[in-house]
Predict the 3D structure of the following.
Amino acid sequence: MKVKFIKATTCDISRVNQIYKASFPGKYQGQDFGSLIFSNDVSVTIAELPENGVSGIGFVIIRTIKNESEIIMLCVKPEHRREGLATLLMIDVIDKAITSGVKHIFLEVSEDNYKAKSMYKKLGFKNVGTRKNYYTSNNKRSDAIVKKLSLDEKETKLIYSKIKKKFIQICP
Ligand SMILES: CC(C)(COP(=O)(O)OP(=O)(O)OC[C@H]1O[C@@H](n2cnc3c(N)ncnc32)[C@H](O)[C@@H]1OP(=O)(O)O)[C@@H](O)C(=O)NCCC(=O)NCCS
């Protein structure tokens, strides 16, 4: 599997929305990422599998202000999950963050999203707060866990170099 990353432009708005819709079957509420792609502080990266002729399997949206980044959305289409793609998208985010002098990456994840929580833990993210009743899904509320990755920490560097070694064969 050879993954390619594309920096999304306004031409990719419908593709990003299509991946989002496919990644949240039954939950899509017409959210549009178009305005975000136009925003200066925001960067959207789409993962593709060109050898398989697949043009969009997942994406990550980040906002960077000064030396802090925030993951706004990360998703992978269900048929391509558990192949390391979200981890690869996160490796790309972390690589770019290190290069551009970012010190901390923040994100929010639902307390009941065990898959994403497990991945962020493996990447070295630490819990730094809780937003009570932050999400609503199917009329059920859940808390958001606020997580932070400090790129200058020794432990982060160690975890990150191990993960990169593991994924080196499929890293773009
Ligand atoms: C969460 C999500 C992005 C993971 O994408 P993915 O490409 O399948 O993730 P990876 O293959 O890189 O897996 C990384 C780790 O996540 C965890 N994980 C992923 N899928 C899992 C599953 N079905 N069960 C348990 N853990 C899982 C594991 O720790 C995994 O590491 P491992 O394979 O070494 O066990 C994907 O499931 C998704 O798009 N979900 C819907 C959107 C979402 O919840 N986004 C996160 C918002 S904060």
Summary: The helical segments are 13-23, 34-38, 85-99, 114-122, 154-167. Residues 23, 74-76, 81-87, 109, 113, 115-116, 118-119, 122 surround coenzyme A (CB under 6 Å). The beta strands are 4-7, 42-49, 54-65, 68-76, 104-110, 126-137, 140-150.
